[in-house]
Design a protein that fits this description.
Blueprint (H helix, E strand, L loop, with lengths): L14 H5 L12 E3 L13 H10 L6 E2 L5 E4 H14 L4 H8 L1
Antiparallel strand pairs: 1-3, 2-3
Length: 101
C-alpha cells in the first residue's frame, strides 16, 4: 500500500484570523491586555517608545504595572480610548480646507 505523504504543514493561524475571535467589547472592563495582544483586539501596534510618549502625553491610556517588567492595559481604558479616537476620526478635511481659505 502506497500512501502519499503531504509535507506541507497546515497554515498557522494569523493575527487577522484570530482577531475575528477576540473583540475588545466582549471582554470584561477589568480584563488586562498585554501589548503583544493588541493586534488580536484590533488595536494599533505602536513602537514601545512611541507608545510610552503617547501615554505620557495623555493620548493613550497608561499601563498597569504588574511587575517590574510586565505592563498591561485595562480593557476599560482601551475601550474608552478607542471610542474617543473614533469620535475624532469624524474629522472632515474638506471643511478644514474651506475654513482655512
Amino acid at each position: 500500500m502506497i500512501r502519499k505523504i503531504d509535507n506541507a504543514a497546515p497554515p498557522a493561524p494569523t493575527a487577522t484570523s484570530r482577531a475575528a475571535l477576540l473583540s475588545l467589547d466582549a471582554v470584561d472592563d477589568d480584563h488586562l491586555i498585554a501589548r503583544s495582544d493588541f493586534p488580536l483586539y484590533g488595536l494599533p501596534e505602536y513602537s514601545k517608545p512611541h507608545q510610552m510618549r503617547l501615554c505620557k502625553r495623555g493620548d493613550f491610556p497608561m499601563p498597569v504595572d504588574v511587575s517590574a517588567r510586565k505592563f498591561y492595559w485595562r480593557a476599560a481604558d482601551l475601550k474608552r480610548w478607542r471610542a474617543t479616537r473614533r469620535a475624532r476620526s469624524n474629522y472632515a478635511p474638506e471643511r478644514a480646507r474651506e475654513t482655512a481659505s
